[in-house]
Amino acid sequence: MKKPQHKSQSRLIVITLGVMVLIASCVKPGLFNSLSPEEELPTQISLDPAMELTSKYLFCPNIPDTAPPIPLGPYDEELGDCALRGKSDEIEAWLLALEGIAASCLANREPNWTNTLAVRSNLDIKVDEMTVSQPEPTVTLSSDVSVPGVEMSDPVCPSYQGPEDSISDIGIVPPSTHHYTDWLMRIAEEVESYCIMIDELVKPLWQACDEINFYQDCQEPNHVQYHAIIEASMNAASINYDYTDFFYTHTLQVTGWGNFRSYFNETSIDCQLDSYAPDTRFTFSQNTFCRRGPSPQYQKVSTFLALQEVQIVGRNEGDLRWWRVSIPETNEYCWVSDSTGTADGYLDDLEFVAAPPLIKGENCSKDLDQSACEAAGGTWAGKDTPTPYCNCP
C-alpha cells in the first residue's frame, strides 16, 4: 500500500500559487523600451492560459538630437572680466555666431511641433487598438498559507517615475570681477538650452508613451486612463512650445545678447591691464603717431614721444611689423610700426590680432593731390582757386 502524498502536493500548490502572484504583480524597473510595435510582451511562465500576457507595447517616438555645438567664447573663466579688455571685436563676432545657431534651431521649431501633433494622434489611435483580455480567475489563498519571499496581497502597479529634470544654476549672482564673463557664459548656455528645448518638444509625448508601457506590465489596458495621460502630456508639450517663443524673443534677444551689447563697456572693467597681460613693452625711438589700424592708411588716434614706453597687447597677424599697444591711462588701443621703436619682453606669448576694417575715406587727407584724393574717396575742391584741396568725406 502506497503512502499518502498530500503533504508533497500541498507544498507544490503553494509554490505554484506564489509564482502566479509574482507574475501578476510584474513590476517594471526600467523606463525605456526599444521593442517594435508588433512585438508582444514577453511571456514569463505559463502555468495557465489565462495567465499569458496579451497586451502590446506602444512604439515610443524618437527624440531628435540636432542641437549644434556652441563655439568656445572669447572669455577666461579664471581671469574674469579683465581678460575681456581689447576683445570687443571678438566678442561681437562670437555673439553673431550664437545668433546664427539660435536662428537655425528656431527653424526647427514648427516642423518639430507638427511632428509632436502627429505623435499625439498616433498614440491615441494605438491606445484605442489595445484589447482587454478576459478577466483572470481569482485566486483565493488560505490565511494560514505562506510562501517564503512572496507577499500575499493584491498586485498593485507602483507609481511611474519619469526622468528627473536637471537643476538650473541660472540666477546665481556672479562676483563683480566676472560680471561680463558670466553673462557671456550664460548666453552660451541659454542658446544651448534653447536648441535642446526645440529638439525635446515631443519629449512629454515620449514620457506618456513610456508611462503607458509601464502600466501595461502590471494591469489590463485602461483606455480612459491612457488617454488622460496622453492629454496631460500634450498640455505640457503645448506649454513648452509657447515657452520656446518667449525664450527666444526675451531671454535670448533682449536679456541675452541684446542687453549685453547695450551695457558692455571696457572702461567699466575695474582692473589693471598689467594684472593679466604678458610682460611686453614698446620703447619709442622717435615721436610717433599711433593709428587705428596696422597701416598708414588708418587714421591717427594718439601720439607718443621718443623714449616713452607702452605695453604691447597684440601683434598683427598679416603684417608682423605692426604692434597693438595700450594707450596709457585709458582702456583704448592703437597700432605702431616697429620702425618707430623697439619691442621687448615675452613676445611669443602675444595674441595675433586681425586688422580692423577700413572706414570709407579714412586714408583721405586735405593735402592729397587730385588722383590720390579721388582714390581715397574724396572730391577735388577749389579747382578755380590758387590753392585747390582734397575734400574728404
Structure, described:
The model is unreliable at 1-55, 136-154, 165-174 and 273-277 (pLDDT under 50). The chain contains eight helices and ten strands. Strands 1, 4, 5, 6, 7 and 8 form a six-stranded mixed sheet that branches. With 393 residues, the chain is α+β, with helices and mostly antiparallel strands. The protein has three domains: 60-133 and 171-263, no CATH class; 277-356, SH3 Domains (SH3 type barrels), CATH 2.30.30.40; 359-393, no CATH class. The longest helix has 30 residues, at 223-252. The chain has helices at residues 6-25, 88-106, 109-129, 179-199, 203-216, 223-252, 257-263, 370-375, and strands at residues 280-284, 288-291, 300-304, 309-316, 322-326, 333-337, 341-345, 352-353, 379-381, 389-391. 35% of the residues lie in helices and 11% in strands. 23% of the residues are buried.
Pick out its properties:
393 residues; alpha+beta; SH3 type barrels; six-stranded mixed β-sheet; two-stranded antiparallel ribbon; 35% helix; elongated; disordered N terminus
